[in-house]
Write a structure and sequence with these properties.
alpha/beta, Rossmann fold, Dihydrodipicolinate Reductase, domain 2, 9-stranded mixed sheet, 5-stranded parallel sheet, about 35% helix, about 30% strand, globular
Amino acid sequence: MLKIGVLGAGHLGKIHLRLLQQSEKYELVGFYDPNQENAEKISKEFGYKHFETIAKLIHAVDVIDIVTPTLSHYKCARAAIKSGKHVFIEKPISNTVAEAEEIIALAKEYNVKGQVGHVERFNPAFIATKNMIENPMFIETHRLAEFNPRGTDVPVVLDLMIHDIDAILSVVQSPVTHVSASGVSVISETPDIANARLEFENGCVANLTASRISLKNMRKSRFFQKDAYISVDFLEKKCEVVKMKDAPENPGDFDMILQNAEGVKKQIYFSNPDVNHNNAILDELESFAHAINTDTEPVVTLEQATEALRIAYQIIDCFKK
């Protein structure tokens, strides 16, 4: 089993600690949190070993799980990688693209693996449909959340929209050629609502909306491609696929047939792929263990996470124009 330690014991850090304690792929050695009072409370309540310094924790493990505020991702990753440790980093990979690129360079130099916590890649509804998403030409995403002060230290693009940026980049195998966006600050110092349009070299267009001051929670994506429409509800973990095929000569009474202006008839049929419910956070952590143990590429690489961050900052730059 791989020995792992967690940096950061806030809301998400505590979830990681609990899941790693349950995992059969890792041995949870302990954690570090700069808030001594919080660290002692967690250690006493759950029995996790609290390390006095980051350096001592890094020395005791094979893998470091970085669940600290984004501003400290680079510093923590740098320390771990330079000690020859593999790193799992919560999204976004770092605060700047330059920091992310240095993390990539360091990981190559010290021959360690890195994975970033873009957890929606492990959402069971996305997993159930991903192989059906083939060359989408229009994508629409809505990620709406009720207001929560946690996370408002960064723009909504880095807090919420980056999930959808990463998911889109994982299915559109073409470079982004143009980005346009608008954002509005309502409560926070940075935009709370944002809309972005990504245009790809192959002609695909993606329209993304994110809000953290919504009256309801929503996390939906729709993918449109030739003869198919695929809907993924990341929140409810449901999906639907609507496909079209040439209509039979003698359709049945209950067949749904459409005829276009040219007289071409298509039959529409619906399917709801099986969704195998999982714990996405545990799955992403254990997939990283698999990548380390088999010396294979992680599901969400440092390079992919850096590209998502790069696009996110191009969107944020549009707000300043």
